[in-house]
Amino acid sequence: MKKILFLSAAVATLGLAAFTVIDDLQIGSSLPKADVKMKDVSGKEITLKSAMGKNGLLVMFSCNTCPYVVKNQARTKENAAAALSKNIGVVLVNSNEAQRGDDDSYDAMKAYAKEQGYRWSYVVDQNSVIADAFGAKKTPECFLFDNGGKLVYHGAIDDSPSNPDAVSRQHLKVAMEELVAGKEVSVKTSSSVGCGIKRNS
To answer: Which of 38, 93, 135, 176 has its CA 20 to 30 A from that of 128?
Structure first.
């Protein structure tokens, strides 16, 4: 009986070791991994710090094929363009390290960005280090920082990721407007709905 209990405890310990809990980045936190170099689809290397705009930075975790990314693609482009117009830098981050040899390869990212007409950075998050630092779990998932590098909004683009016709509040758009106006962001967090980021286990 003691051997069975010992074996069960050992298995449970190994299971916990294999399962890593990723904590959410809290509102007010500083921009993490700001100086980590990432390869952009332009061929250049950028950092989150270098992408920061006069009024802040929008970091959105995304990919090429997640159905939720596809459903939200028009809204992604609309919000990214709005951010740039407000002097907020934009970086889309692909953290799907487990799919680098397939749908989320660098070449596939380049083709997707060209097809979508991206005018902002779309970068490879090698080994998902940026996603881990942010506590990002979904695609799409948004993080908005002020010009001091403090997180002011984290969550979904709006309140209806599955159906654009049912949107009643555009969380990200409102957060950007409030940020640029010098106001406190009224809704600081919302629940991201999408595909899980494909990390290497």
So the answer is: 176
Question: Count of domains in the chain?
Answer: 1
Please report whether residue 179 resides in a domain.
yes
Domain limits at 139? 22-196
- pLDDT tens, position by position, for the chain (201 residues)? 444 434 444 434 444 333 445 688 999 999 999 999 999 999 999 999 999 999 999 999 999 989 999 989 999 999 999 999 999 999 999 999 999 999 999 999 999 999 999 999 999 999 999 999 999 999 999 999 999 999 999 999 999 988 888 999 999 999 999 999 999 999 999 999 999 999 997
Q: What is the pTM of this model?
A: 0.88
Does residue 89 sit within a domain? yes
Cα–Cα distance, 88 to 184 (Å, whole number): 16
Residues 65/97, Cβ–Cβ less than 8 Å: no
